[in-house]
C-alpha cells in the first residue's frame, strides 16, 4: 500500500530572543505598537465622555473600570517599548479615531437619559473592544514569533482584559438594557 504525503506547512522553529528591530516584521511590530499606543491614550480621553453620557449605573461602572484598565494598558505598552529598546511614541490610529467619532455621533443622535443611548454606547464600546482584541491578538502572536516572550506575556494580559470587558458589556446589554430600551416610548418632535 502506497502512502501519499500531503504537503503541510511546517511551523518554523521559534527564534529565541530576537527583537533587534532589524527585520521588516520587527519594524511592523513596532509600528503596530505605536498605533495601539495612540489608540489607548485616545481612549483615556474618550471613555469619560461615554461614562458621562451613559444612563445606567451598571454601564457607568463598566466604563469607569475600563478607563482604569486603559490607563494600565498605556503603562504596559510603555513597558513593551522598553523591552524593544524604543522610545514610546504614538502614531495616530485612524481606526480608533473613527470608532470614537462614531461613538460621539451615537451620543449626539440619541436622547439624554435614554436606554437607547446606552444600547448605542455599548455597541460603540464593543466595536472598540473588538478592534483592540484583534490588535492585541496579532501583537501577541508577532511578539512570540520575534522571540519577545516577555512582551508577549504583557500583551496577553491586556488581551485577556479586553476580552473580559467585551463579555461584561454583552452581559449588561443582554441582561437588562436591550430589553428595557425596547420598552421606551419614542419621543417624537412635533
Describe the structure.
With 190 residues, the protein is an all-alpha fold. The protein has a single domain (24-179), classed as Ferritin (Up-down Bundle). The chain is 73% helix and 0% strand. The protein has five helices and no strands. The protein has helices at 24-53, 57-83, 94-109, 115-146, 149-182. α1 packs parallel to α3 and α4 (115-146) runs antiparallel to α5. The longest helix has 34 residues, at 149-182. Residues 1-19 have low confidence and may be disordered.
What global shape is seen? elongated
Estimated radius of gyration? 21 Å
Looking at CATH, the homologous superfamily is Ferritin, core subunit, four-helix bundle
What share of the residues does DSSP label as strand, in percent?
Answer: under 5%
Quickly count the helices: 5
Q: Mind telling me which CATH architecture this is?
A: Up-down Bundle
Largest sheet: none
Return residue spans where pLDDT drops below 50 for at least 5 consecutive residues. 1-19
Reported by name, the CATH topology is Ferritin
The percentage helix is: over 70%
On the 0 to 100 scale, the average pLDDT is 89
Element pattern in H and E: HHHHH
Ends distance: 83 Å
Q: Indicate the CATH class.
A: Mainly Alpha
Count of discrete structural domains: 1
Structural class: mainly alpha
SS elements, strand count: 0
